[in-house]
Amino acid sequence: MDTNDALRTAEQLYAALEADDIPRFLELCAEDVSLRYPGQGRLPYGGLWEARVGVARFMDAHEAAEEILTFEVRRMLAEADTVLVLGDFKGRAKPDGREWSTRFVHHLTITDGLLRHWEAFFDTAAAIDARGP
Fold this sequence. Notes:
It is a single chain. This protein has 4 helices and 6 strands, in the order H-H-E-E-H-E-E-E-E-H. The chain is an alpha+beta fold. The protein has one domain (about 5-130): Nuclear Transport Factor 2, Chain: A. The protein has a 6-stranded mixed beta sheet with strand order 2-1-6-5-4-3. Strand 5 and strand 6 form a beta hairpin. It is globular, with a radius of gyration of 14 Å.
């Protein structure tokens, strides 16, 4: 896959997230997509989520756990089928209302115009602390 194709797909994925268009986001995922978020066992959305149905469950778990206040992509770097996305996130934990923020890096693998793998890196301690003791 051409680097520009991978970058275009990544831009479409993030545009779908920004528009809260989860069906469109899922259309851009391969059937066997995998999504890995840190914090398994400590965050409701942490862990490995597989296939489109798993990614949809991740989205539901994330929405139930926190309100997104800021989700800003700062930069996308692409080479071949790999895209790194750097950005800033600010959220409010539900139901307590504690706010937290972090920088993030998302490592995407995109082939044939579809997301194959997404791995997130961010300050999990801040996310866990926002949920209280």
